[in-house]
Design goal:
Elements (H helix, E strand, L loop, with lengths): L2 H15 L8 H10 L3 H13 L8 H10 L3 H14 L5 H7 L7 H17 L5 H7 L5 H13 L6 H9 L5 H14 L5 H7 L3 E2 L2 E2 L1 H11 L1 H11 L4 H9 L5 H14 L5 H7 L7 H17 L6 H5 L7 H14 L5 H7 L5 H14 L5 H22 L7 H25 L3 H6 L6 H14 L5 H5 L7 H17 L1 H9 L1 H10 L7 H18 L1
Antiparallel strand pairs: 1-2
Helix pairs in contact: 2-3, 3-5, 4-5, 5-7, 6-7, 7-8, 7-9, 8-9, 9-11, 10-11, 11-13, 12-13, 13-14, 13-16, 14-16, 16-18, 17-18, 18-20, 20-22, 21-22, 22-24, 23-24, 26-28, 28-29, 28-31, 30-31
Length: 531
C-alpha cells in the first residue's frame, strides 16, 4: 500500500469511527487506534490526536494503558510525545516503566529519547529519579534529553552524576558540554572545582570554555570566591593540577578576569588593576591578560582603572590599543581625555582611530577643535604612512587621506550630541534613534550611566540592533540600569520572554555571537532574580 493510500485509509477510519462516538472523547481515539494495525498507522493516529486540540488529562488512562501494553517502540514513542503534551505528573510512573535501558536499535533509542523528553516536559521534581536512570542509557541523544531536563529542574540529586559525565573522557564532547550547562543551571557549589578545570580543558580539538565560563557565571558567589582565589594565586590545589597537566598558569588569569568582570565582582578590582601591568615573556599572553583585565574593569565601572588605562593608550599595537581605549569609553568621565587626544595623533591609522573613537565617546564640544585638527592633519599622515608601509588604499594616498578625514569628522557627531544632551538621560534616550550608529552606542552608555529606570524600555526596544558593536553598548547600558535600579530590574524581568525568544532565534547567527553572549548573561541575571 502506498503512503497516500495508507493516509486515505486512515482518514476514512477516523470518519467512520466518528459516526458512533464523540470525536473529542478518549473512547473515539481508542477505537480509532484499535482499528490501526500497522505501527506507522498507529503512530499517525496518535500524532493526529496530538494536533486535534482535544488532548487533555481525560486521555491519560487510555494513553497510560497503551504505553504499558504496546510492544512496538515507535508507538510507545508517539504515546510518550502525547503524554509530554499533557504534562501531568500522573504520567511519571508509566513513562518510567516504559524505559528500556537495554535498547540497542534505533527504534528503541528513539523511544527512550521520547520518554526522557516527556519526563522533562512534565517539569516536576518527581521525574528526577526516572531521568537519573536515563543518564545511563546507551544512546547519547537520550542522555542529552535527560541531562537537559535535570538542568531545567535544577535537580541537586543529579550533580554528582553530571560531574561524572562532564569528566568522562570517553563521552562525546557534545554530551560533556550539555552536562556542564546543566550544572550551571542547577547552581550547586559542588560543581565549581570541576567547572574551573573545564575552563582550560580541550579534547579532540574541542574547547569547553564557553560552556564552563557561563556555568560559573550562573553559579554566582561560589564561583566568584573560587575565581578570586585563582586570580590572587591562592588556589594551591588548582595550581598543582595546572602544573601536572602542562597548562600555562596565565590562561587562568585571562579567564578568571573575564568571568569576574561578568559577575561585577568588586573584590577583584585591586587584583585586576595590578594585571594591567602583567608581564610575560610571550607578548601575546601578556597582551591577552592585560586586555581581559581592562575589559573586566570596564564592565564593573572601576574608577580606579582610569589612570592606569590612560597610561596604556599609547600602545603601538592597534588591536591592543583598541582594547584599552574601548575600556575607557565604557568607564566614562573626562580624566582620560588628554591621553586619548595625544594617542589620536600617534601610531598607524588603526591605532589612531581607536583613540579617536574613545575620545568622541567621552568628550563634548570642548574636544571639537582637537577633532577638527586631527581631521585636517589626516591627509598628510595617510600619505606618509602609505610611503612607509603601503597597504590597502595606498594606490591613491590622496583619496585615502580624504576618506579618513571624513571618517574623523563623522565621529564628531557624538560630540555634537554631547553638546546638546550633556548629562540629561532623557535627551540621550531620544538619541538612541539616531541614524549614526556611533551616536547610538554613546547614547546607550550614557543612558545606562544616567541611572533613570524610566529609559530602560528605550534600550530594550533596540536589542535587535544589527550592528554588533552598537548592540553590545545597548546591552551594557541596560545591564547597568538593572544593576543600579530595582524598578529597572522589575521592568526588565517583564521583558524576559522577548529576550529569551531573541536568543533562541539568533542562536545560529554567528555575527551576533559576542554580543549575544552578553545578552545571555543579562537574561541569566534576570532569571536568577525572578526565581
Amino acid at each position: 500500500m502506498s503512503r497516500l493510500l495508507a493516509a486515505s485509509s486512515l482518514a476514512l477510519m477516523l470518519v467512520f469511527s466518528g459516526c458512533k462516538v464523540d470525536p473529542t472523547s478518549p473512547e473515539y481515539w481508542e477505537k480509532t487506534l484499535g482499528r490501526a494495525r500497522r505501527a506507522q498507522d498507529q503512530v499517525r493516529v496518535i500524532e493526529a490526536l496530538r494536533s486535534s486540540g482535544t488532548l487533555n488529562a481525560s486521555f491519560l488512562p487510555f494513553l497510560h494503558e497503551q504505553l504499558a501494553s504496546d510492544k512496538k517502540p515507535e508507538v510507545k514513542a508517539a504515546v510518550a510525545r502525547a503524554l509530554g503534551d499533557v504534562k501531568n505528573v500522573a504520567s511519571v510512573e508509566p513513562l518510567g516503566k516504559a524505559v528500556d535501558l537495554g535498547a540497542t536499535d534505533s527504534a528503541g533509542n528513539l523511544m527512550n529519547k521520547a520518554l526522557a523528553s516527556a519526563l522533562g516536559e512534565i517539569g516536576d521534581p518527581r521525574t528526577v529519579p526516572e531521568l537519573m536512570k536515563l543518564l545511563k542509557a546507551r544512546d547519547n541523544y537520550t542522555r542529552i534529553e535527560a541531562v537537559d531536563a535535570l538542568g531545567r529542574l535544577r535537580a541537586k540529586e543529579a550533580v554528582e552524576p553530571l560531574i561524572q559525565i562532564t569528566l568522562d573522557e570517553t563521552a562525546e564532547p557534545f554530551l560533556n558540554k550539555k552536562a556542564i550547562e546543566a550544572l550551571g543551571r542547577i547552581g550547586d557549589a559542588r560543581a565549581v572545582p570541576v567547572l574551573m578545570r573545564m575552563l582550560t580543558k580541550e579534547r579532540r580539538g574541542v574547547s569547553f570554555y564557553v560552556e564552563s565560563s557561563f556555568s560559573l557565571f550562573q553559579m554566582g558567589q561560589p564561583a566568584a570566591d573560587a575565581l578570586l582565589a585563582v586570580l590572587e594565586g591562592k588556589d594551591e590545589e588548582l595550581s598543582r593540577w595546572v602544573k601536572q597537566n602542562g597548562i600555562n598558569p596565565a590562561s587562568y588569569s585571562f579567564k578568571a578576569a573575564e568571568i569576574l568582570g561578568d559577575l561585577r565582582e568588586r573584590r577583584a578590582e585591586g587584583a585586576l588593576v595590578q594585571q594591567l601591568a602583567f608581564k610575560h615573556e610571550d607578548p601575546r599572553i601578556q597582551a591577552g591578560v592585560r586586555a581581559r583585565a581592562a575589559d573586566a574593569l570596564a564592565r564593573m565601572r572601576s574608577t580606579a582603572a582610569v589612570k592606569p588605562l590612560a597610561a596604556l593608550v599609547s600602545e603601538p599595537d592597534a588591536g591592543l590599543r583598541r582594547q584599552y581605549t574601548h575600556a575607557l569609553a565604557r568607564l566614562g568621565g573626562r580624566d582620560a581625555l588628554p591621553a586619548l587626544e595625544k594617542a589620536a595623533g600617534q601610531g598607524d591609522w588603526y591605532a589612531r582611530e581607536a583613540a579617536i573613537d574613545a575620545l568622541t565617546m567621552l568628550g563634548d564640544a570642548r574636544e571639537q577643535p582637537a577633532l577638527e585638527k586631527l581631521a585636517a592633519a589626516e591627509p598628510a599622515k595617510a600619505a606618509a604612512e602609505c610611503a612607509e608601509l603601503g597597504g590597502e588604499g595606498c594606490e591613491d594616498p590622496a583619496a585615502l587621506g580624504k576618506k579618513r578625514a571624513e571618517m574623523i569628522s563623522r565621529y564628531g557627531q557624538r560630540l555634537e550630541a554631547a553638546k546638546t544632551c550633556g548629562a540629561d538621560p532623557a535627551c540621550w534616550a531620544k538619541r538612541l534613534e539616531d541614524a549614526d550608529k556611533g551616536v547610538v552606542a554613546r547614547a546607550a552608555l550614557e543612558v545606562g550611566r544616567g541611572g533613570a529606570a524610566a529609559h530602560l524600555g528605550a534600550l530594550l526596544s533596540r536589542m535587535t540592533e544589527k550592528d554588533p558593536d552598537t548592540r553590545m553598548a545597548l546591552i551594557l547600558g541596560a545591564e547597568w540600569l538593572v544593576e543600579d535600579k530595582k524598578e529597572a530590574a522589575a521592568q526588565a524581568r517583564a521583558s524576559l520572554p522577548t529576550l529569551e525568544k531573541q536568543l533562541s532565534e539568533e542562536k545560529s547567527r554567528t555575527e551576533y555571537v559576542r554580543a549575544n553572549e552578553d545578552l545571555r548573561r543579562l537574561v541569566a541575571r534576570l532569571q536568577r532574580q525572578k526565581t
